[in-house]
Design a protein that fits this description.
Blueprint (H helix, E strand, L loop, with lengths): L1 H32 L3 H4 L14 H9 L2 H32 L3 H13 L4 H15 L5 H26 L2 H9 L4 H12 L1 H17 L2 H6 L8 H5 L11 H27 L10
Length: about 280
Amino acid sequence: MRTSTGDRIGQYAALLAYLVFLALPFLWLVSIAFKSPRELGSLHPTWFPQEPTLDNFRQAFDEQPLLRAAGNSLLAALGAALIAVLIATPLAYVMARHRTRLAKAATGWVVVSQAFPLVLVIIPLFLVLKNLGLINSLPGLVLVYVVWALPFSLWMLVGYVRAVPAELEEAAAVDGAGRLRTLVSVTAPLLAPGIVATALFAFITAWNEFFFALVLLKTPEKQTLPVVLTHFIGAEGVADLGPLAAAAFLATLPSLVVFAIIQRRITGGMLTGAVKS
């Protein structure tokens, strides 16, 4: 009993340390965003702003086109998430239900591909987009994001498909439903939490992505929000800290809001009671 209690205390302590590790940078970012220039230049920094102000937010919007950049990021992220899910869902179903050597090899390749660094793939992707005339365009960036998010999205959905009891599909087949009808009417509704989780992953990955957008987008009017954030850093590497923190805080909000809205669907047990033994 003592060992069990000690293990539980250790687990809670590790979880608390992990939460603190994740939360402190964000809390410090929020604190800086609301501090006045006098507080930011103080030799004795405080955790919380003594005189909260919105001047950093006003200055951030005055200095950089944040709304336009956020719109570009939103279009790229939504497009990448939608296309990745539409492609990955039927492929994941085939790979999960038909466990052939080819399907196993494809699954292994999906896992291995996640180890490839961005620098390794940027040159081939750049050449492909150049031949297609999609350099310096949001459709080209969306295509790159889909290629980058698709392997992990496929890997996620394969696991969700395998969690759906095959007995449900067998029952639908007995009732005369074809493969496509079974996928649309039986399997897809049960995959909703997995599809939502995969779309969320693809959206957040594209929303926060910086390297591809920096290389492929040269026109200021087409740049995404992470790229525009770098404009708050001067030529000598000196950051305009207050406006930068305010803009970075606004850039993190969509990911947090989206996750807060749909997290119940991700964790919900939609398969509970579907099949009784």
